[in-house]
Amino acid sequence: MGRTGRTTSVSDSIVIDRSPLELYGMVGDVTRMGEWSPENKGARRRSGGAARVGDEFVGWNTRGRVSWSTLCTVTRAEPGREFAFRVHEIGGPKRRVSARIATWQYTFEDHDGGTLVTETWTDDRPWPDAVARVFDHLATGGKTFAAFQRGNIRRTLRRLKEVAEADVVR
After folding, report:
1. pLDDT class for 2, splitting at 50, 70, 90?
2. For residue 38, how many other CB atoms are within 10 A of its CB?
3. CATH code at position 19
4. Residue 117's Cα: distance from chain center in Å?
């Protein structure tokens, strides 16, 4: 449980037959996130080159018939070790609202010739539990965000493994 009584952080891991540096390169290229995420459809970075702490990007997401964009800032960028970003604006094509939303983190560890990739979602919303419960139920079709994201993380990691092991890493 998190600071408020609700679960505010969930993680899962998978071993992938690629090096930590190769997998970091895939995940750190946020424009590719839509290749493995069940919700994210891609992103546009505001700067070129390798991702650095402080870089911003806009991500596009879809859940069912609802689509939205987010503004995110890279908070950790250690090639071959860790990539993380904070989501701090959300909205539609004409307007986004600034708010503490979530942090996504990916860690990469050598593991028997492959890499143990761990993905973690942290709920940064400072909302009372009752408000979060109602919103989560509506936004996820009856689940908490922790339960919903647990499934998303599992699907993301499986798909990342499929893409990484089936293709030559770019």
Report:
1. very low
2. 16
3. 3.30.530.20
4. 13
Distance CA 37, CA 157 (A): 8
**Phi-psi map region of 23: left, alpha, beta (phi>0 left; psi -120 to 50 alpha):** alpha
81 vs 117: CA distance, rounded Å: 9
- DSSP H or E run through 85: strand 82-91
pTM tops 0.85: yes
Residue 4 resides in a domain: no
Domain span holding position 130: 11-165
Dmax (CA) for the chain in angstroms is 48
pLDDT in tens, 76-118: 999 999 999 999 999 987 778 898 999 999 999 999 999 999 9
Bridge partners of 94, per DSSP, are none
170 pLDDT higher than 60: no
User: In the structure encoding, which two tokens stand for residue 141, read together?
Assistant: 């079709």
Bridge-based pairing state of the strands 114-123 and 96-111 = antiparallel
